[in-house]
Structure formats: C-alpha cells, structure tokens
Specification:
Keywords: Cell membrane, Membrane, Transmembrane, Transmembrane helix, Transport. Belongs to the binding-protein-dependent transport system permease family. It is found in: Cell membrane. Its main location: membrane. One of its GO terms (biological process) is transmembrane transport. The radius of gyration is 22 Å and the shape is elongated. With 250 residues, it is mostly helical. It is built from 13 helices and no strands. The longest helix is centred in the N-terminal third of the chain and has 32 residues. The chain has a single domain, classed as MetI-like fold, CATH 1.10.3720. Helix 2 runs antiparallel to helix 9.
Length: 250
C-alpha cells in the first residue's frame, strides 16, 4: 500500500515492484480533495465518533462490569447470561430494527446512532472482559474500603477504577480501532458526504463502472492508519501493566 501510494495509477497493477519506478506525490494531493470535500473533514468525523465511542464504552461497560462482579442483585446470573448471549447475536440481525428506531427519532445522518448506544453498555465483549478483571481483584480491598466508610459508588470510583486501568486501556484501544475501521455501520447511518467518516469516504474511490482511483485510495488509506498507530503507541504500556504494579503505584 505504501509503495502503490507513490505510483501512477497505470503502474500500480502493471508493475509489482515495491520500489516505484516513477515516484509521484500526485495521489496524495489529488486524493485529499478528490471527493470535493477535504479529507480533513472525514478525519475529524471519524475522530469525533471514535472519541465518543471510547468514552461511552469505558464509562458504561466499567459500571456494568462492576455491578456484575461486586454487587448482589436479583436475578444476577440470569442477567449475566442474557448479556453474554448478545455476543453470539450477529449485528446484521438487529441492524434493520435499529435503523427503523433511529429513523423514527430523526437520528439518521447524524453521529448519534454511532455514539449514544456506547453509553448504554451495548458491547458485551468489553463488559465480560472487565468483569473477569474486576473479579481477579482481591475482595479484601472492598472490605478495607467499606471499613473506611466507602459506599458502592466510592468503592467503584476510588478503588476499582484505578486498579482496572489495564483493562480500561484495552477497552479503549480496541473500541477506537474497531470504530475507526467500522465501515458497515457507518455506511448504514451516514448518507450525506459531509458526515462521512474515513472508511465510508475511502469506499467512494471505488466506482461501480470500473473507473477507480486506486492511487488516491492507497494514499488516503495509508493516512487512515496513522491515528490508529498513534493511539496504540500512546496506550500500549497500559496493556502490559499488571494489577500488582498498579497497586504499588496507588
């Protein structure tokens, strides 16, 4: 992809060499404005959706996971089983009812269908991940905090969240990566070009008539990888940070 982004369109498939025989930056200059809207617009759209999804998942999934891992309430095993069963439910089975719902409340062509559900803990995978992490924390920490007068909310905020940083970082990283590369959902709910995200905008380079701008597509696709790499490099340390290390830092 890197090599093809610097090749003229007529050499991308005719010359398989990794070193471009004809080096050009035209793919980047033309690709940036190829759709009539600067790609910076699509970049900020994707970034806004990803940040909203990350914040929503970290907050809501951690709260639900804390309830399942530490609190006692009626029918807890049943609700936990129902939550896990949603992991096996294909998204394509619920996209039509979701579309009808969001259209009825006027959310189509907005970022709300992509962000708001994240604040309702709809990603069961991350809930399960956080539940398993919180269950591994020593229950003696809860008892000590309760002796000091901490209630359930204070226990969650002051004890559980600081110790769960590695799991929260994992949730944030994978939410960002999956949301940034999510094409299907964003294509369903975003129809106006001004609201396109990076994946939907990249698809516009492929013409059903056979006239496709592959050079610009590769160039813009390469730029689309940069935020993912930066986000991962910023938070990769937290992925390997253990519970004991976090406890010592606390």
């Amino acid at each position: 992809m890197l090599s093809a982004s610097f090749k003229p369109n007529n050499l991308i498939f005719s010359n398989a060499s990794l070193l471009p025989q004809q080096f050009t930056l035209k793919n980047y200059t033309t690709g940036w404005m190829a759709l009539g809207t600067p790609f910076s617009t699509f970049f900020w759209n994707s970034l806004l959706v990803c940040i909203g999804a990350v914040i929503g998942n970290v907050i809501s999934c951690s709260m639900v996971a804390y309830a399942f891992a530490r609190l006692n309430f009626k029918f807890k095993p049943l609700w936990f089983a129902i939550m896990l069963s949603t992991i096996m439910l294909p998204y394509h089975a619920i996209v039509v009812p979701q579309y009808i719902l969001f259209k009825s409340i006027g959310w189509i062509n907005t970022f709300l269908p992509l962000i708001v559900p994240k604040f309702l803990a709809t990603d069961a995978f991350f809930i399960f991940l956080l539940v398993q992490f919180i269950r591994a924390l020593p229950p003696e920490l809860d008892e000590s905090a309760q002796i000091d007068g901490c209630g359930p909310i204070q226990l969650f905020w002051r004890v559980i969240l600081p110790l769960a940083k590695p799991a929260l970082a994992t949730t944030a990283i994978f939410t960002f990566i999956w949301t940034w590369g999510d094409f299907f959902t964003q294509l369903i709910f975003l129809n106006n070009q001004s609201s396109f995200t990076f994946p939907v905008a990249l698809n516009s380079f492929l013409d059903s008539t056979g006239v496709s701008q592959y050079g610009s597509l590769f160039a813009m696709s390469l730029l689309a990888l940069v935020p993912i790499l930066i986000f991962f490099l910023l938070f990769q340390r937290l992925l390997t940070e253990g519970i004991s290390t976090t406890g010592l830092k606390g």
